[in-house]
Amino acid sequence: MNQDHFNIKQITAQESYSVRHPVLRPGKPISTCVFDGDDLATTIHLGLYQAETLIGICSFFKNAHPDLSVQNQYQLRGMAVLNVFQGQGLGNMILAFGEKLMNQKNTETIWCNAREIALPFYKKCGYETFGQAFDIPSIGPHYAMYKTL
Ligand SMILES: CC(C)(COP(=O)(O)OP(=O)(O)OC[C@H]1O[C@@H](n2cnc3c(N)ncnc32)[C@H](O)[C@@H]1OP(=O)(O)O)[C@@H](O)C(=O)NCCC(=O)NCCS
């Protein structure tokens, strides 16, 4: 994958919906794409573009997980790549960019609630599971995962 063909930049929550909706909330109302805290000043949304087209997204929320004791932690949410672009290293590319940015902001740990189907992706990116699997209604089984930066 030639990284020169892609551009990663900060975007608004609303801009992320063109990927959040088809990939993470397909067939559901667009209102389901709105996450708590999307518009907080501490929240960071990233977008990966090919030319003018947004094809990958991830967001970082200043949320502490009750089972993690570290001070500076952020929650990764809305991790998604448009279906036709998946499996080409783009998810890894935007997540690595985000981790570097969060590290520069003194974040020590990133955690997420990972869909079971996405576990292999997060493991490849250096995340580990913790705690018990749990169900998110209408989405399915999830695992909490974390990575120390
Ligand atoms: C999960 C997702 C963001 C990953 O993005 P991607 O661009 O497809 O992933 P990448 O191509 O960057 O994969 C990075 C690494 O993870 C591995 N990987 C990704 N998906 C995998 C899978 N389902 N099984 C095994 N390995 C996988 C890749 O092989 C790659 O490893 P490599 O570098 O050794 O080749 C993307 O597939 C997606 O949007 N899925 C649907 C939405 C979703 O489930 N989001 C997560 C919500 S918690």
UniProtKB/TrEMBL annotation:
This is GNAT family N-acetyltransferase. GO terms for molecular function: acyltransferase activity, transferring groups other than amino-acyl groups. InterPro entries: Acyl_CoA_acyltransferase, GNAT_dom. SUPFAM superfamilies: Acyl-CoA N-acyltransferases (Nat) (SSF55729). Residues 6-149 form the N-acetyltransferase domain. It comes from the Bacteria. Keywords: Transferase. The keyword Lyase does not apply. The keyword Transferase applies.
